[in-house]
Every structure is written in structure tokens, then in C-alpha cells.
Inverse folding.
């Protein structure tokens, strides 16, 4: 059953992957075959992506039907890991006992199946090959479902949002030319074509079974992002932002390429998982080569020559041609990890490459929702998660710190941003930081859990902001809004759901109450599990998991306490600026009467996706740690990494294991909730309350330096300007000067010499060469003129000439013959 | 006894040939010139056939003569068309009037 | 033409050149054993007969024409001269014409005016040089017989044109030009139609073509395949036009051109034109009979037994090498041939007096737009017909041995074209065995 | 005197005499008439050479075809009845002299060369196309046009295609088609732009 299901899954997901490509091909070539006013392209795109969603949903259903793998081995390693852990951290021995007691309880999701295979071999160099592989595990399937669902909603939303493009003559009010506003044919079809291409690329990235293919689609989503940010390419800001995004990503991708090179030279394969080919040959995957089944790195710890020995999937050593064990220098493994992570940094807008994402908000809002919040930027996190087993502890620490710094920096900037989309953009960066942090800390499932939930509520919020912008006729500045909830109630309240979700608010104590009720009523166990969870929207669960992981980590490694403090503070700040946004926009009194008067609720085509997404944002994480989503993700978690690290004791770092995290869950959740509540309340005081109202501008004037610092985004742009742009400009100026003075001088000199020479040449030509030719022609002409009288034009004369000629020739011939014959 | 041999045929062919040539040379009528050409071709043809009868030339002579006849027919058709055109343009058939290309 | 030279040195001439004039089936009479007296007798006899026939046939046909015309027009026609049916009417006409003064108009080109009737006459009578009246009755058994006949008959038009031109009269000129245009056009489909049976027979030799059709009527070229069947009717139409008979007699359209190209002619020269016309009629009819209607064969299968029966009679009768029995067989063949050809001539007369005359443009349209493409199609079809038969696995359409299977190979033919398919071989062999006893 | 001699001299005299008449005649139609006679006689000479097919072809194509064409041409281009363009007597005399010289050369060559020794192999074997020896020439001629040479034993390894006439035959047939089209194109009647003085019959003659 297994391989067959695997094939079916692969077929379903491949169909889901290729459908948008089909859509793209048709849309880009036949997009406005009939008219630019036709919505045909949009219908096609929606059809394709909905079809993809249906395929993904069927795949999800099928996958859930599979029995889970018995966890014998896993259990063993788990035990083993605990033992090692006990050795390193005897202080927490007590925790192990608790964990042991709750073993079957805290580990409800045994490992799930993963499948992999090859679609097509692109190139083959003896036993090395590059192919189009697929790799399916629960993460892949969840990602597919999430991406296609959100993309479907956003496609539908965009049909309404982009309707202004449905014209032969679109006037862009933000572009000024000498003839007034710039106007061009509408690009409705193009927008959807790019959306389809993006979906194709994103799904391909998720489905890819090797790191090289990931890179290919990585670049493809980058290109789509470039196209979509620069959708209004005539606007200077848009084209600049598109360039900026692209170049920033190049920096990260450079690292990615280095990582790829290291992997290719050291391992000779790009493939994730080990599998047996059709010809019976076993193709080892990266993960199995680096780590054993117990998650341990097989270290060869010679001084100055630290290396990781490679093993096959049954932990047998791999031998090189000369009989020695194949190995990879530890430093190279760090390099590979950091390189790939550099790609993730660029794509996910992490510190220090985070500056492109806020600018990317120049693209249409559906793009921001789909590409720059929910999916593409999450690709970095996804890759970090997918590549997790390859990361050695040092790399993980780097990841954690980068995540922590990013989340804090972005959150602080979001406090002072006034553009509604930019607030959301910084919020996105911040949340991505959370995810990175979680992965760096060993909370693999937590990070990806947050990735999914975040995707839902952030796309919801972006769409809401899009709805606001659409309703307010392209006003994006929050200071001009206010009180809009009366004008656009659906938008306002779906947005509120999103805000609550991202803030991680929950009602304390309800879990206990409802859990008790459920137990009393004798409901099934699964219901009881759900009921006994906190009543909170998805963000609470995921962020709670991250904070819990961070807290546990900080407990295990007190040196890195900052990694707990920053996310906790970030949670408060998040709550603050999100509610600030909501209050600013929807509550209070209208600040700009003109905007308010013309505001209106969006059409159902746009609000329907909002409602659907709101439902998912609220309930997708239902059940928390025992819920469906988390269980699914947990099924594919490379949990043995943490255990392996503990067992190997290769580093001074210790990664928390599940049961440890679980121990801290309640505490961490409480902290996070309190902090979020404080943030929310502060926001209310500043922006929502009618009485006891605090004035933000006072604070602003009290700390002008802080405000300016934040408003200028920690001056990263200035820093980069000074560090990179200015030097480049200076060098370029020098180059230009050299060019102008030296090279141009040489060229001009050569030209002058050439002119002089050609002057002489001309004299020679005119007098001697032409003279010769003219003389020849004159002579020829003269000869022809004198001979032309022979040409009488009389036919009969010519006949006579011929006859006379024949007679003469014959006569001479005869004469000559006679002369010859006579002597003999 | 046959006293007629190859030479007799050659002589007749020669006479035809010369008559044709003279005809070409002295006739002012374009069609007369054309008739001269036909005579010349016939003289040559007669030689071919005679050679094929009396020498080893054999089949080749007859085949060549056949081709000459066919091509002569083609030539006559084209020449007559030219003559008609000439007549349409000059209102005469006198070849001496066709001297626009003189030097 | 033979008597002209017989005056000089008949014996020498005949001995050297018998093959040129009277092809008496040289299998029996080879050159060395030819007996002079017998040859001379035969040649004189045949010469007289052929010349006599040439001279007499038009007279008879002219009488027949008048009689047929009369009957068709519900009159009696000639009744008085020579008895009950006026059968000497032709002779009377001839006498009258000979007696008339030989006139030449003042504005005519006298040389051409006088010569052109001869040209026409020679051309149309020259055709009889190679037309076989029977297997042994052919003055010259020319290997390119049918080609030669067509070539000679095409010369006739030159005479007509010259006559029309030299008369110095516009009626005559118009008639001559019409004749020229018409005959030159109709010659093409006529030649192509004649080629259709030639392709089936694989020979231009008219004796061979005739011999191939021996046996029953099913062996006639007419019934050989669909294309020859159509070709016969096309050929007959075209032949009627090329001998300028009604309804294609535009060259002498009385209602328009007085009498066309012979307006200015009278007397004996006029009668030459008419003799030529009737000779031509008979010639094209004879060709039609030879090519399509079995030649001198009766078509009921009695010919071969009859000849076999006659063969033993009178071996070397009177002269060495002269076979009386075979001669009688040939006479029988001549009779059959003349009967068939005369029937076709009668048919032409019938058509003439039944159908109205066409306009000149209709005549040309009929030829160039309809008859020419049809004949080309027939030529193509008959070329491809053997392949159709091959595909169908048949040796011939009417399940008789393929044409020419019974004809012995001529001794002078060294190269035999290879048969298209091996399937044909046994049939040919059987036919040869069956017919072996027949007259070669 | 054999019949061959009789016929040869008769035909030769007719051919030569008529050819001379062509040269001497002033009227084009008479020239055409004499040409017919001459060509017919040449056809007779062909028959004497046992070239039956050629003789017939000569009659059909030359006498029957080309000459009708010529007469048409004459009549279409005549500006009056019995028109003739007189030759300048001086030119005629000059032409006659030159022609006589040329004839002298040709006759000298024809007589002076011993053709039997000039072609030694021909002396060894009998003439190729004597009817009494080799039979009719029609079939070998036809085969040679189809690419076969039954009259010639080329021996082992001979390149048969190089000595047969299939290719020239095809070329000639295509050539004829081209000529047909070309002649029709050249001779098509063109409507005159402006009336020509004194040329009232031009329209008729062109059509």
C-alpha cells in the first residue's frame, strides 16, 4: 500500500504543482486574446489554483489515511537522548521523570511516512546526477494545502482588487509625465499570469526533492516577486523597490550558491532523502549521510582536523575509493549550513537583509498578502526547516540570534510606522524572526507551526488592509483613517480576528473549565483534548510554542538568555503595534473627513475570502499541541537532531526536547499572555481609549531621538548607503573619470590621427586610383565607340559574316593542310 | 547494284545546307529567313541519317536527327511568335528594319 | 505508282525492291527464290487493282452520297443514269468534269493554283500506301504504318491552304484559313486517339494491329478496355472533322463562303478535291476499322478456320511461291475490310445529312476544350490500365487472352519488350500452343 | 540501275531543285510551297535510308506542322495580297558567290574524304540500319529514347545510361512545353495604344 499511496500522492501534488504553470502559459500568451476588459485570465487562474487546492486537499486526506510508523526506533533513540541529556544536565533530572511519566501523552504523533522519487533526470555525470525529484512528507502536504488555500483566496480577492486594470487605458495617478498622468493598457491578465507562475514556483519549491531543485524554484519565486513588486513598473518607487528586493536576494543567494557548491563537492548529491532507484541502485540522501538514525554526527575529533564521517542509511560507514572513510570537514559543514541559511536570510528578510521587504509593499496588496507575507518569505523558513538535519549546533545558534535580532528590530520599527501596509510588513519580518528563532532553538515544529498560522492570519490582515485601501481609494496612511469600522464592518472585524490571532491573546482558565466540562460530559478523547486547550486563536498556540521553546532553551543554556527575553518583549511589542494599527484604522473618530466620507465596504468578491481566511486564522491551530496541524508537523520533525546533539555532546549547547518544552509550556504561555495583554492594553490607552487617553505625540516629543531612530528603521538603509552604495558610487565615479580622461583620450587621439590619414588617403584615391580607373574606362569607351560601327544591326549581314568567316577559316585550313601534306 | 553511296547523300545535304544559308543571307522577309534555317537544319539532318545508314554511327544519327526535327519545330514556333511581334511593332516583316540595336 | 518505274527496268526493280511495294508475306518467298514472272504478274495485278480502287471508290461514294442524301431528305436521288438506281451517275459526273475547261482566275497565283489540287490528292491517296486491306494485302508493310498515315493525311491541309490562298478570292481565303485552323487543331486529338489502341497493341505496324484482333469480336480493340471503347467514338468524331465533313464542314460552308477554298476551282481540278475528300473519308474509316473494329476479321471467329481450310489449296500456283489458297483467304479479308469501312463511310454521310452545321467557334471549342482533354485522359487511362488489371489479377477485362497473345513474333523483331508481370506468361504460352497450327 | 538509284536521284533532284526554288522565289507563299516539296523529298530520302520513323516524323512535323505554321505567319504578316520583298540584286549576287564558295568547300569535303577508311570499324561490319539486315529501326529508336540500347552490346561494366537518350528526351519534352507557353505568350495579341496612320488592317492581322 505504501509505495502505491506514495505514487498517488506524488501524482496529486504534481498535478497541483503543474496546474498553475498551465494557467500561466495560457494567460501570458493568450491573456487578452479577446479584450483587456475580459476577466477570462482571472477565471482561468482561479480555476487552476482551486484545482491545485482540491488536489492538495485530496492528498492531505489520503495522507491522513496512512497508518503511522511504529515508533520503536524513535522511542529508543529518544530514551537514549534523554540519557545523554541527563548526563549533561543533571540539574534537570526531575524533568526527565515527569517526561517519562507523560511519554505516551506528550508524544501523540509518531513519525509519519515520507516518500520520494524522481520525475526526470536532468543531467548525469557517471554516478552523480541532477534530477527533478520530489519529496513528500507531512510538511510538504501541509505546505501545499496552506499555499493553495491562501492563494485561492487571494486570487479571488485580487479579481476584485485588480478590477481597475480591466481597461484598455489605465491611468496611473502616481506617475507624472510631461503630458499629465501616465496611461497604459490594463495589465489584468499579466497580474494573474504572474500570480500563477508564482504559485507554480512556490509549489515546486515545496515539492522539490533535492536542494538544487529548491534553488531553481527559489530563483523562480524571486523572479515572480520581482515582477510583482514592479507591477507598476512606471512608478519609480516600484521599480526601485523591485530592484532592491532582487539585489538583496542576490546577496543571500550568493551564500546559498556557496552552500550548494560545498554540498555538491563534499557529498556528490543534492538529494534530501535516501531512496532506491528503479534500477535497484541505492541513492543516498544528504540527511542520512550526515546523521545516523539516532541523530548523532559521527565526529572525527582530531585536533585541527575536525570532520564529520559519513554513513549510509543503516549507519554503516561510507568508504571512499581508497578504503578510508568518507568524511566532510566540520568547518565545511558549518559553511554549507551558513550558506544555505544566508539564502534563507535574504528570502525571509532577516537581519541584516531585512530592508527590502517593507519596500516591496509597492506591489499590489494581493501580492503583498500572498508573496510578501504568507508564502514566499516563508520559503526561507521552510528551507531552514527542510534543511534542519544538516545544521550543526553553531549554525543553529547563528540562526537563533539572527531570528531574535530580526524580530526585535522589526517590531520596534513597526511601532512608529504609519503606512498600514508597512506596519504589516514589519510585523511580517518580526514574525519571520520568531520562526527562525524557533528553528534555531530546536523548536522545529513550533517554528513551522507558526509559519502556517502566520500565513493565515497575515494574509488575512493584508487582504483586510487591501480592502481598506481599496475602500479608501488608495489612501494608505493610517493618520488619515479612523472610525472605519462603521463603514466597513466585515473588514474591520475580520481584521480584528487577525490582530487577536497575531497578538496571541487568549482567555486564561477557560481551558480548565471546558476541559472539565468535556470530561464530565464524557465526550470522546479527541474532543476532550480540544476542549481542554486554551480558547485562543491560532497565533496564541504557535507563538506560545515558540516562547516555550525559547524559555526552555534559555534554561538549558543560561548564557543565551537573551534568546528568551527578546521574543518575550517582541510579543508585547507585537500586541502593541497590532492593536495600534487596528485602533488607528477602525476605531475612534475619522481624522480625515474626506476619506471617511468616500470610504465604502468592498464587494463580496473581496470580503468572502476575508471571512474564509478569518475562519482559518482563528481555528487552524485548534487544539494547540494536540491539535491536527501540530500533530501533522510533528510527524515529520527530525526530532532526533536534538537528541543526537545531546547524545553526541559535540557542543556546549543543548537543545530542548519535547517533554522539556512541554514542561515549560504553561509557564511560558502565561508569560506570553501577560506580555501580550500589557501590550494590548497600552495600545488601547494610547489609541483606543476615550478617557485616560495617552497622547502618542507626547511620547514622541519626549524621546525624539528614539522616534527618529525607529522611524528611520534603525538607520539600516543609511548604514548600507554608507557601507556599500557610497563606496560603489565613489569607485564608479573614479572609473568614469578614468574612462573619460584616459580611454576616451586615447580613442579621440586615434580618431584624429585617422582623420588626418584618411585625408591623405582621399587625395591618393582621388588622383591616383581614380585617375587610373578613369583612364582605363576612357580608353575602353574610346575603343568601344570606334568598334561600334561594326555592329550594323542587320541580321542578314551577320549571316554573311558567318558564312564568309567559315569560308575563310575553311580556306586557310585547307591551305595549311595542303602545305603539310605536300612535303610528305 | 546500288551505286548510290554515302557521298551522294552528303552532296544533297550540302546543297540543301548552302541553299538554306543563302536564303538566310539574301531574304529580307523574316519568314524567308526562317525557311532558310529550316533548310539548313534539313541538310544537317540528312547528313545524320545518311551517316547512320552507311557508317557505324547507327542509332545515334537517327536519334540526333529526331531531336533536331523536334527542336526545329520548337524553334519555328518561337521564331514565328517573334516575327508576329516584330510585325506588330514595325508594321513590316522586313528584317532590315530591325536595326535599332546598331552601333 | 509502281507502273511508272516498271517501264524502265521492271525486273531489276522488282527484284531489288519488292519489299517496298508488295509485301507478299516474305516468309514463303525469299529473295533468292523469287520468280520473276510471277512477281511481275502479281505486281501488275495488284497495282491495277489498287489504282482502280482509288479511282473507282470515289465515284461510287459520290453516287452513294447523293443517293443517301436523297433518301434522307425524302427524295429519290439519282435515278436515270445507268439504269434503275442511277448507279452510273458518278461516271456521268466525272465525264462532265473532265470535259470542262481548266480555268485559272486572273488574280490567282497560277502556279500554286494549279498545283495545290495535286497536293491534296497525293496526300490523301498516299495514305493507302500503308493501309492493309488484309493480312497479305498491303502495298507497303511499314513498321510505322499508322504514324505514316497520320503524317501523310496531315499534308492534305497544306494543299487546301495553298488553294485557298492562291485563288485570289476572299471566300477561298477564308475557307482555307478555317480549314487550316480546324484541321491543325483536330489533328492533335486524332493522333492521340489513334495512339490509344497503339499503346494497347504495342506496335505502330497496322498489319500487326490487325492480326492482334483476330478471333471473336471480344478481341476487337473496341472491347479491349473502357478507354479504347470511348476512344473509338472520340476518334470517329475527330476523324469526321479532320476530313471536313458535316457537321464540321466549315471550310466549304455553302451558306457562308459560297464553296470555301475551292470556290474558284472547276473541272478536273475541282474533282481532284472531291476525290481526295472521299478517299480521305475512306482512309479514316479504314483506320478506324483497323484500329478498333478488328480490321479484316469478321469478328465471329470464322476467319482462322477458313484460312486454315484454304491454305493447302494451290501451293505454288502458276508461279513458284504464289499460294492460291492464302490469296483467296486474303481476298475474303479484303471484302470484310471494305464492307466495314464502307459502313463507316455511310455513317459519315448519314451524319452529314442529319445534323446541322456548327459555327466555327463551336467547332474549335468542341475540339480544344472537350475532345482534346478527353483524349488526353484516355491516353493516360490506357497507359495505366495494365496496372489496374494487374491489381485485379485479371489478364484482360472480358476474360479472353490478352491482345496479341496469338500473334506469332515477327521474325525481324529481335528485341521483345519484357512483359509487365509474370502472371501473363502461362496465358501467352497456352495461346501460342493453341494457335500454333494457324497461318503464321 | 536499281530502284534505289532511281528513287535516290528522283528525290535528290526534287529536294535540291526545290531548295534552289526557295532561294530564287520572291513570293513567300511560293517559297513555302517549294519548301514543302523539298522537305517532302528529304523525307523520301530518309525512307531510302531505312529511317521510317524519321521520314514519317519529317512529314508530320515539318511538312504538316511547321509549314502550316509558316504559312500562317506569312498570312498574318502580309500587308497586301501576294506581297513580296525584293532582294537587292547586288546582295543576291554576292550571296550567290559566297554560297557557291561554301558549297564548293562542302562538296570537296564530302567527296575528298574516304568515309570507309575514315571510319575503319564501319568497313568491317555491315551498315547498321539496313532494313534487310537489322530490321526496322523504330523499336530500337523507341527503346533508346527510354534509356535502353538494344542495338549495341556495350560489354561488361558498361555505363548504360551514358549512351542512351532518356535524359535528352525528357529535356526536349520539357523544352517543348516551355516553347508552347513561350510562343503563346509572345504571340498574344496586344491592343495598340494609338492608331497608326495607314494601318487600318492592323487590328485584324493581330487577332
Amino acid at each position: 500500500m505504501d509505495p502505491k499511496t506514495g505514487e498517488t500522492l506524488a501524482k496529486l501534488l504534481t498535478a497541483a504543482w503543474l496546474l498553475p504553470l498551465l494557467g500561466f502559459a495560457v494567460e501570458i500568451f493568450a491573456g487578452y486574446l479577446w479584450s483587456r476588459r475580459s476577466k477570462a485570465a482571472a477565471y482561468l487562474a482561479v480555476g487552476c489554483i482551486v484545482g491545485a487546492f482540491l488536489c492538495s486537499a485530496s492528498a492531505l486526506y489520503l495522507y491522513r489515511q496512512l497508518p503511522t510508523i511504529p515508533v520503536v526506533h524513535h522511542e529508543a533513540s529518544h530514551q537514549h537522548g534523554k540519557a545523554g541529556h541527563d548526563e549533561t544536565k543533571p540539574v534537570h533530572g526531575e524533568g526527565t521523570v515527569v517526561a517519562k511519566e507523560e511519554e505516551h501523552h506528550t508524544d501523540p504523533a509518531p513519525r509519519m511516512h515520507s516518500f520520494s522519487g524522481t520525475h526526470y533526470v536532468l543531467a548525469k555525470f557517471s554516478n552523480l546526477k541532477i534530477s527533478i525529484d520530489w519529496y513528500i512528507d507531512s510538511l510538504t502536504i501541509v505546505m501545499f494545502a496552506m499555499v493553495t488555500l491562501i492563494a485561492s483566496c487571494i486570487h479571488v480577492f485580487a479579481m476584485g482588487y485588480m478590477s481597475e486594470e480591466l481597461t484598455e487605458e489605465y491611468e496611473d495617478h502616481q506617475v507624472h509625465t510631461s503630458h499629465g498622468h501616465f496611461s497604459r493598457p490594463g495589465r489584468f491578465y499579466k497580474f494573474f499570469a504572474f500570480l500563477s507562475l508564482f504559485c507554480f514556483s512556490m509549489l515546486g519549491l515545496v515539492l522539490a526533492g533535492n536542494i538544487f531543485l529548491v534553488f531553481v524554484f527559489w530563483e523562480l519565486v524571486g523572479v515572480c516577486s520581482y515582477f510583482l513588486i514592479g507591477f507598476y513598473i512606471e512608478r519609480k518607487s516600484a521599480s526601485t523597490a523591485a530592484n532592491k528586493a532582487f539585489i538583496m536576494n542576490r546577496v543571500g543567494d550568493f551564500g546559498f550558491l556557496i552552500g550548494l557548491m560545498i554540498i555538491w563537492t563534499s557529498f556528490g548529491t543534492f538529494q534530501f532523502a535516501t531512496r532506491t532507484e528503479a534500477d535497484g541502485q541505492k541513492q543516498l540522501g544528504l540527511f542520512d549521510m550526515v546523521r545516523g538514525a539516532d541523530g548523532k554526527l559521527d565526529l572525527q575529533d582530531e585536533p585541527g582536523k575536525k570532520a564529520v564521517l559519513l554513513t549510509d542509511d543503516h549507519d554503516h560507514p561510507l568508504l571512499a575509493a581508497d578504503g578510508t572513510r568518507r568524511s566532510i570537514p566540520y568547518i565545511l559543514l558549518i559553511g554549507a549550513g551558513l550558506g544555505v541559511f544566508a539564502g534563507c536570510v535574504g528570502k525571509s528578510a532577516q537581519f541584516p537583509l531585512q530592508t527590502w521587504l517593507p519596500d516591496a509593499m509597492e506591489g499590489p496588496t494581493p501580492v503583498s498578502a500572498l508573496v510578501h507575507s504568507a508564502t514566499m518569505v516563508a520559503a526561507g523558513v521552510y528551507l531552514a526547516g527542510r534543511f534542519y538535519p544538516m545544521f550543526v549546533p553553531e549554525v543553529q545558534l547563528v540562526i537563533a540570534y539572527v531570528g531574535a535580532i530580526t524580530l526585535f528590530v522589526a517590531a520596534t520599527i513597526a511601532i512608529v510606522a504609519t503606512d498600514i501596509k508597512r506596519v504589516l510588513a514589519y510585523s511580517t519580518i518580526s514574525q519571520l524572526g520568531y520562526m527562525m528563532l524557533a528553528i534555531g532553538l530546536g523548536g522545529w515544529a513550533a517554528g513551522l507551526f507558526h509559519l502556517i498560522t502566520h500565513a493565515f492570519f497575515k494574509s488575512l490582515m493584508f487582504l483586510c488592509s487591501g480592502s481598506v485601501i481599496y475602500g479608501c481609494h488608495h489612501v494608505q496612511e493610517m493618520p488619515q483613517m479612523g472610525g472605519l469600522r462603521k463603514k466597513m464592518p466585515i473588514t474591520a472585524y475580520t481584521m480584528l480576528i487577525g490582530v487577536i490571532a497575531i497578538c496571541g491573546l487568549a482567555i486564561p482558565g477557560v481551558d480548565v473549565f471546558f476541559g472539565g466540562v468535556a470530561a464530565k460530559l464524557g465526550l470522546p478523547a479527541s474532543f476532550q483534548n480540544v476542549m481542554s486547550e486554551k480558547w485562543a486563536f491560532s497565533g496564541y498556540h504557535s507563538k506560545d510554542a515558540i516562547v516555550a521553546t525559547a524559555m526552555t532553551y534559555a534554561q538549558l543554556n543560561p548564557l543565551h538568555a537573551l534568546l528568551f527575553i527578546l521574543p518575550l518583549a517582541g510579543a508585547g511589542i507585537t500586541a502593541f503595534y497590532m492593536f495600534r494599527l487596528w485602533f488607528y484604522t477602525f476605531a475612534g473618530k475619522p481624522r480625515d473627513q474626506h476619506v471617511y466620507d468616500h470610504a465604502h465596504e468592498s464587494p463580496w468578491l473581496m470580503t468572502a475570502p476575508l471571512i474564509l481566511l478569518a475562519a482559518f486564522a482563528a481555528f487552524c491551530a485548534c487544539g494547540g499541541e494536540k491539535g491536527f496541524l501540530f500533530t501533522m508537523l510533528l510527524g515529520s520533525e527530525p526530532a532526533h537532531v536534538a537528541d543526537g546533539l545531546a547524545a553526541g555532546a559535540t557542543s556546549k549547547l543543548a537543545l530542548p526536547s519535547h517533554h522539556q518544552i512541554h514542561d515549560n509550556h504553561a509557564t511560558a504561555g502565561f508569560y506570553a499572555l501577560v506580555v501580550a495583554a500589557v501590550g494590548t492594553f497600552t495600545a488601547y490607552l494610547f489609541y483606543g481609549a476615550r478617557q485616560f487617553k495617552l497622547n502618542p505625540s507626547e511620547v514622541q516629543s519626549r524621546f525624539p531621538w528614539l522616534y527618529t531612530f525607529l522611524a528611520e528603521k534603525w538607520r539600516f538603509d543609511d548604514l548600507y548607503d554608507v557601507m556599500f552604495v557610497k563606496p560603489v558610487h565613489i569607485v564608479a565615479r573614479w572609473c568614469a573619470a578614468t574612462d573619460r580622461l584616459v580611454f576616451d583620450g586615447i580613442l579621440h587621439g586615434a580618431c584624429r590621427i585617422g582623420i588626418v590619414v584618411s585625408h591623405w588617403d582621399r587625395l591618393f584615391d582621388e588622383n591616383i586610383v581614380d585617375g587610373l580607373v578613369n583612364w582605363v574606362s576612357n580608353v575602353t569607351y574610346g575603343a568601344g565607340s570606334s568598334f561600334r560601327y561594326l555592329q550594323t544591326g542587320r541580321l542578314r549581314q551577320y549571316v554573311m559574316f558567318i558564312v564568309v568567316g567559315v569560308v575563310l577559316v575553311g580556306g586557310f585550313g585547307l591551305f595549311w593542310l595542303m602545305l603539310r601534306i605536300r612535303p610528305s | 547494284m546500288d551505286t548510290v553511296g554515302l557521298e551522294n547523300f552528303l552532296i544533297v545535304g550540302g546543297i540543301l545546307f548552302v541553299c538554306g544559308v543563302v536564303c538566310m543571307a539574301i531574304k529580307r522577309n523574316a519568314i524567308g529567313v526562317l525557311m532558310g534555317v529550316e533548310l539548313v537544319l534539313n541538310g544537317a539532318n540528312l547528313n545524320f541519317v545518311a551517316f547512320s545508314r552507311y557508317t557505324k554511327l547507327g542509332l545515334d544519327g537517327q536519334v540526333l536527327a529526331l531531336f533536331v526535327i523536334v527542336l526545329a519545330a520548337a524553334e519555328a514556333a518561337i521564331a514565328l511568335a517573334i516575327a508576329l511581334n516584330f510585325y506588330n511593332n514595325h508594321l513590316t516583316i522586313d528584317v532590315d528594319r530591325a536595326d535599332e540595336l546598331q552601333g | 505508282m509502281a507502273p511508272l518505274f516498271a517501264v524502265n527496268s521492271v525486273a531489276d526493280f522488282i527484284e531489288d525492291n519488292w519489299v517496298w511495294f508488295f509485301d507478299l508475306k516474305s516468309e514463303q518467298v525469299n529473295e533468292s527464290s523469287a520468280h520473276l514472272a510471277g512477281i511481275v504478274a502479281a505486281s501488275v495485278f495488284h497495282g491495277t487493282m489498287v489504282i482502280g480502287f482509288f479511282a473507282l471508290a470515289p465515284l461510287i461514294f459520290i453516287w452513294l452520297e447523293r443517293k443517301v442524301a436523297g433518301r434522307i431528305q425524302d427524295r429519290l436521288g439519282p435515278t436515270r443514269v445507268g439504269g434503275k438506281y442511277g448507279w452510273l451517275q458518278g461516271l456521268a459526273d466525272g465525264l462532265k468534269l473532265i470535259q470542262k475547261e481548266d480555268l485559272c482566275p486572273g488574280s490567282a497565283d497560277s502556279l500554286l493554283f494549279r498545283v495545290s489540287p495535286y497536293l491534296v490528292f497525293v496526300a490523301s491517296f498516299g495514305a493507302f500506301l500503308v493501309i492493309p486491306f488484309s493480312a497479305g494485302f498491303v502495298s507497303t508493310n511499314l513498321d510505322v504504318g499508322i504514324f505514316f498515315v497520320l503524317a501523310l493525311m496531315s499534308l492534305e491541309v497544306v494543299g487546301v491552304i495553298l488553294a485557298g490562298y492562291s485563288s485570289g478570292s476572299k471566300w477561298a481565303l477564308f475557307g482555307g484559313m478555317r480549314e487550316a485552323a480546324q484541321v491543325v487543331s483536330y489533328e492533335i486529338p486524332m493522333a492521340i486517339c489513334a495512339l490509344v489502341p497503339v499503346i494497347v497493341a504495342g506496335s505502330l505496324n497496322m498489319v500487326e494491329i490487325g492480326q492482334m484482333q483476330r478471333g471473336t469480336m471480344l478481341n476487337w480493340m473496341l472491347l479491349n478496355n473502357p478507354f479504347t471503347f470511348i476512344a473509338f467514338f472520340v476518334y470517329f468524331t475527330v476523324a469526321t472533322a479532320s476530313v471536313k465533313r458535316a457537321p464540321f464542314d466549315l471550310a466549304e460552308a455553302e451558306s457562308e463562303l459560297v464553296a470555301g477554298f475551292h470556290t474558284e476551282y472547276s473541272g478536273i481540278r475541282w474533282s481532284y478535291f472531291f476525290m481526295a475528300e472521299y478517299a480521305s473519308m475512306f482512309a479514316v474509316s479504314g483506320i478506324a476499322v483497323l484500329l478498333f473494329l478488328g480490321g479484316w476479321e469478321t469478328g465471329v471467329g470464322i476467319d482462322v478456320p477458313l484460312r486454315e481450310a484454304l491454305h493447302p489449296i494451290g501451293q505454288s500456283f502458276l508461279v513458284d511461291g504464289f499460294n492460291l489458297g492464302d490469296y483467296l483467304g486474303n481476298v475474303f479479308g479484303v471484302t470484310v475490310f471494305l464492307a466495314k469501312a464502307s459502313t463507316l463511310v455511310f455513317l459519315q454521310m448519314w451524319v452529314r445529312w442529319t445534323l446541322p452545321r456548327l459555327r466555327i467557334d463551336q467547332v474549335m471549342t468542341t475540339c480544344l476544350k472537350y475532345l482534346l482533354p478527353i483524349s488526353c485522359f484516355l491516353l493516360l487511362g490506357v497507359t495505366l490500365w495494365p496496372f489496374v488489371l494487374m491489381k485485379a489479377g485479371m489478364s484482360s477485362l472480358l476474360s479472353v487472352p490478352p491482345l496479341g497473345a496469338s500473334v506469332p513474333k515477327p521474325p525481324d523483331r529481335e528485341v521483345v519488350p519484357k512483359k509487365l508481370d509474370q502472371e501473363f506468361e502461362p496465358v501467352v504460352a497456352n495461346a501460342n500452343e493453341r494457335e500454333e497450327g494457324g497461318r503464321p | 540501275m536499281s530502284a534505289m538509284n532511281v528513287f535516290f536521284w528522283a528525290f535528290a533532284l526534287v529536294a535540291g531543285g526545290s531548295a534552289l526554288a526557295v532561294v530564287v522565289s520572291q513570293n513567300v507563299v511560293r517559297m513555302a510551297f517549294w519548301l514543302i516539296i523539298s522537305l517532302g523529298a528529304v523525307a523520301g530520302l530518309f525512307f531510302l535510308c531505312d529511317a521510317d520513323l524519321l521520314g514519317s516524323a519529317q512529314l508530320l512535323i515539318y511538312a504538316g506542322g511547321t509549314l502550316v505554321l509558316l504559312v500562317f505567319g506569312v498570312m498574318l504578316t502580309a500587308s497586301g495580297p501576294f506581297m513580296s520583298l525584293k532582294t537587292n540584286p547586288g546582295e543576291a549576287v554576292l550571296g550567290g558567290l559566297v554560297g557557291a564558295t561554301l558549297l564548293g568547300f562542302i562538296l570537296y569535303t564530302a567527296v575528298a574524304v574516304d568515309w570507309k577508311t575514315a571510319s575503319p570499324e564501319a568497313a568491317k561490319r555491315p551498315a547498321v540500319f539496313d532494313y534487310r539486315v537489322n530490321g526496322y529501326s523504330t523499336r530500337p529508336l523507341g527503346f533508346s529514347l527510354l534509356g535502353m540500347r538494344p542495338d549495341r552490346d556495350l560489354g561488361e561494366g558498361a555505363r548504360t545510361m551514358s549512351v542512351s537518350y532518356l535524359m535528352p528526351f525528357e529535356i526536349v519534352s520539357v523544352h517543348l512545353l516551355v516553347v508552347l507557353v513561350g510562343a503563346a505568350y509572345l504571340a498574344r495579341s496586344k491592343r495598340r495604344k494609338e492608331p497608326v496612320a495607314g494601318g487600318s488592317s492592323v487590328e485584324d492581322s493581330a487577332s
